[in-house]
């Protein structure tokens, strides 16, 4: 099936209704949903064939969107790199759900510089799950067509837009140590 491409506002409505969408990010297409909706998150994990224990990244358009997801921490090192393609591991909030954080004491967060992702988060009114659009162990989708090939009718829409021009997925750094866990 060929999906009609969605605006950020249409995609936000789909996520508010519990749907799963695909959208262009800095380097690859991502799968996203409402991070508070356990059923939607579990759909993404099943589509990707990804273990819950691995945890998921949340993206936002501003650090304030992560209120309720972050434990006690000095955000300054992360704020110095944002908005941008750097994901930081923050101490997770005490009530952060396992289906998002996995088996980690941290929550992976990124304030994105990608205009389409920023518009999506703003339209949604908060952070969005961001994980590469591909089954585990396969190359990430770099086009809407590749998303269709991987997931077809198993997702609820694809956001219109272009990739951000980066070759690799976001760098991941640990806030507590500054250590780079995944280079860009």
Topology diagram in text:
Layout: E1 5-6, H1 8-16, E2 21-24, E3 29-32, H2 38-48, E4 57-60, H3 76-79, E5 86-91, H4 98-101, E6 106-111, H5 115-124, E7 128-132, H6 144-151, E8 158-159, E9 171-174, E10 180-182
Parallel strand pairs: 1-8, 4-6, 5-9
Antiparallel strand pairs: 2-3, 3-7, 4-7, 5-6, 9-10
Helix pairs in contact: 1-5
Number of H/I helices = 6
CATH topology: DHBP synthase
How many E strands? Answer: 10
Low-confidence stretches: none
Number of domains: 1
Q: What is the helix fraction of residues, given as a range?
A: 25-40%
Q: For the record, what CATH class applies?
A: Alpha Beta
Domain YrdC-like: 5-184
GO biological process, one term: tRNA threonylcarbamoyladenosine modification
EC number: 2.7.7.87
Keywords: ATP-binding, Cytoplasm, Nucleotide-binding, Nucleotidyltransferase, Transferase, tRNA processing
Short précis:
This protein has 184 residues and is α/β, with parallel strands linked by helices.
Description of the structure:
- By secondary structure, this protein is of the alpha/beta class.
- The chain has one domain (5-182): DHBP synthase, CATH 3.90.870.
- 25% of the residues lie in helices and 22% in strands.
- The protein is built from 6 helices and 10 strands, in the order βαββαβαβαβαβαβββ.
- The radius of gyration is 15 Å and the shape is globular.
- The N and C termini lie far apart (33 Å).
- The mean pLDDT is 95.
Give keywords:
25% helix, DHBP synthase, globular, 10 strands, 8-stranded mixed sheet, 184 residues, 6 helices, two-stranded parallel sheet, alpha/beta
């Amino acid at each position: 099936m060929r999906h009609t491409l969605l605006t950020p506002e249409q995609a936000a409505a789909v996520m508010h209704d519990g749907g799963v969408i695909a959208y262009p990010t800095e380097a690859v297409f991502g799968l996203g949903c409402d991070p508070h909706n356990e059923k939607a998150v579990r759909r993404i994990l099943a589509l990707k064939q990804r273990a819950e224990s691995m945890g998921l990244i949340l993206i936002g358009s501003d650090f304030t969107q992560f209120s309720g997801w972050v434990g006690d921490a000095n955000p300054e090192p992360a704020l110095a790199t944002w908005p941008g393609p750097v994901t930081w591991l923050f101490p997770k909030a005490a009530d952060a759900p396992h289906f998002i954080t996995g088996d980690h004491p941290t929550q992976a967060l990124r304030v994105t510089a990608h205009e389409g992702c920023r518009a999506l988060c703003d339209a949604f009114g908060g952070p969005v799950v961001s994980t590469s659009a591909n089954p585990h162990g396969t190359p990430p989708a770099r086009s809407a067509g590749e998303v269709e090939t991987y997931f077809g009718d198993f997702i609820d829409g694809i956001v219109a837009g272009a990739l951000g021009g980066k070759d690799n997925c976001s760098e991941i750094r640990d806030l507590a140590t500054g250590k780079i866990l995944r280079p860009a």
